[in-house]
Each structure stands twice: as structure tokens, then as C-alpha cells.
Design a protein that fits this description.
With about 325 residues, the protein is α/β, with parallel strands linked by helices. It is built from eleven helices and twelve strands. The protein has a domain of about 210 residues: Rossmann fold, CATH 3.40.50. It binds nicotinamide-adenine-dinucleotide. Nicotinamide-adenine-dinucleotide binds next to helix 1, strand 2, strand 5 and strand 7.
Length: about 325
Amino acid sequence: MNIFQNSNVLITGGLGFIGSNLARRLIKIGANVTLVDSLIPTYGGNLFNISDISGKVNINICDVRDPYAMAYLIKDKDFLFNLAGQTSHLDSMSSPHIDLEINASAQLSILEACRKINPIIKIVFASTRQIYGKPDYLPVDEKHPIRPVDVNGINKLAGEWYHLLYNNIYGIRACALRLTNTYGPGMRVKDARQTFLGIWIRSLLEGKPIKIFGDGLQLRDFNYVDDCVDAMLLAGAENEANGKVFNLGSTEVITLTDLAKLLIDLGYGGTYEFVPFPSERKVIDIGNYYSDFSLIKKELTWAPKVDLCEGLLKTLSYYHANKENYWNDFD
Ligand SMILES: NC(=O)c1ccc[n+]([C@@H]2O[C@H](COP(=O)([O-])OP(=O)(O)OC[C@H]3O[C@@H](n4cnc5c(N)ncnc54)[C@H](O)[C@@H]3O)[C@@H](O)[C@H]2O)c1
């Protein structure tokens, strides 16, 4: 990881969940870190996420849709971790054009700025397993057909492929990680807009039942945020990764009901109940999903280290201590 020492790093979406955890790690390594975030109130950005490192990072509150600001920020950077995104699948259906602007058009502007101003930058793009849609087979590897089930999946796919295209055509070193459900301190837990696990954590700590949609038998895999950060750093450091996409994932595959039971067993109380799948969610649900991550294991030697029990315990303990900074209404 010495490659990041004294390097200039830009993280888009840096006040969000994964971006802030990545920033913390890069600061430890000795990088000069700049965070870009729009802090759109309903999205995942939260200044509390970086309260412990706020004096050690440069913070730029701006929107990645502003091509002039982005060109200025990209100019002198060695690495770009490109994480800013509209992440709600439901919102992508109700406001598809906003999702298009942030997850696709803005990505193209960022890459154009790199091409014109800083073609030697190295980029890691945060893509998603959502682009596969409903799996034909499990575990899902990178050769699985791409069949997004919502607008967000299509726009993230475009964003991902713009990065690969600029790598292949212009030699701007870029790669993409297709993240599975990532969790940990800093994730958005306020409501059900983003990942279901966020609102489950809030419900549990507020003494309300966890609501499981449907029969609770859906299979999922999860990565603790530190493991996701490891993968991002490896992908940033290794030129082996250039022009490639890699699945992240875990061998710990669990049904949603067993996940709820595991959370409840961790000592913070909690109950769960089954509720009918809301129709607007059911139509974009991908059913069972878990990843084959053997490619990144083989090529970049990445494998998750934090098991689900340990990761969930750290997460619950974090929100137990810091809840007022995550579920008060700021907007
Ligand atoms: N967390 C997961 O489980 C998961 C899974 C798959 C993919 N991803 C991808 O990883 C990336 C980071 O996700 P996260 O979980 O940290 O989400 P997050 O919502 O916590 O972080 C995204 C950040 O981007 C910022 N942002 C959004 N639109 C912006 C804009 N127009 N200009 C500037 N900043 C903007 C938000 O304010 C937020 O801080 C996203 O691109 C997401 O699609 C995450």
C-alpha cells in the first residue's frame, strides 16, 4: 500500500459510507485525501462519518454533475476512487433522470476531464452486483449475463462501461468493482431508501420489529466495509486490475430470516416479523443472490476477512453509540 503514501487522492462520494471509510484508511497510509460530496440531504453523505479525520482531509462540497468543478478537482490527482452515486433502486424508478445524470452522464464528464487534463490518473469505480439482475445460476461470476431489473442497474452499468472504454481506448487506467451488500459503520440507516440492512439496524435499536419482506428465504452475501476498502485499495494499487471488472462477495451466504435472527442474537434485543413484499419493490427484486469472487481472489489476492457475526456486532455497537448522528432529521 506504499503506493498511496504522499499521493494525491480524490474520493467522490467521500462523505458517504464507503468513501469515508476509505478516506480514513488512506489517511493512515499517508495519502493527501480530497473528498467530493454534494451532501444532497436524502442521500448517504454525512459529515459525522469523517468527524474523527475532518482536520486531515480536504472537503469539497460540490456535485459530480458540475463538469467545471470536477475538472478542477481532478487536475493534480494520482488516484480517483469514484464512489459518488444515487444508490436507491426505488428512487431510480421514481426519478429516473436524476439517476441517469449522476450515475451515467456525470461519469462521462469525469472521464472526459481525466482524458483532457489528467490522463495518467488511476481510477477505481464502485459498480454493483445489481447489474446482473435475477441470477440464472449461483454463485454469480463476472461471465453471468447482464440483465438489470431497474433504472439504477442500467445507469450503473453505463457508468462502469464508460470507465472500461476509457481504459481500453484512451489508456486511462480504470477498473470496476461490482460490490455486493456492504455494511458497517457509516452506512445510511435512516429509512428504507437504501439497503434493507440499514433500516433493520435502526428498527432493532429502536425496539421496533425488523420487517422481513416475503418469506425471508432469499439468500444474500455481505461484505463488511473494511473488506470492501481492502479491495478498493488493491484495485487502485495493482495495474493488473486495469480494464477489468471484479465481483466482491463472501462465502458466508445467509437467508434474510437467519440474518434477522443473527442480529437479534448479538445482544441489542430485537424482534422480527414477516410482511407482504411491497409491490413496487417486488417488481425490482433480484431473488436469491450471492457472488463468485474467485477472480479478484486469484488476480488481486483479495478475500473478505471479517465474518458476518463480528461485522454486525461492530456495526450495531457503532449505531448504538452514535444513533443521534444518523437518524435525526436533518432535512
Ligand atoms: N453499500 C453497498 O451495499 C453498495 C452496493 C453496491 C454498490 N455500491 C456503490 O458504492 C458507492 C458508494 O456507496 P455507499 O454505500 O457508500 O453509498 P452512500 O450513499 O453512503 O455514498 C454515496 C455518496 O455519494 C454522494 N453523492 C451522491 N450524488 C452525488 C453527486 N451528484 N455529487 C456528489 N456527491 C454525490 C452522496 O452524498 C453520498 O455521500 C455507490 O456508487 C454505490 O452505487 C454500494
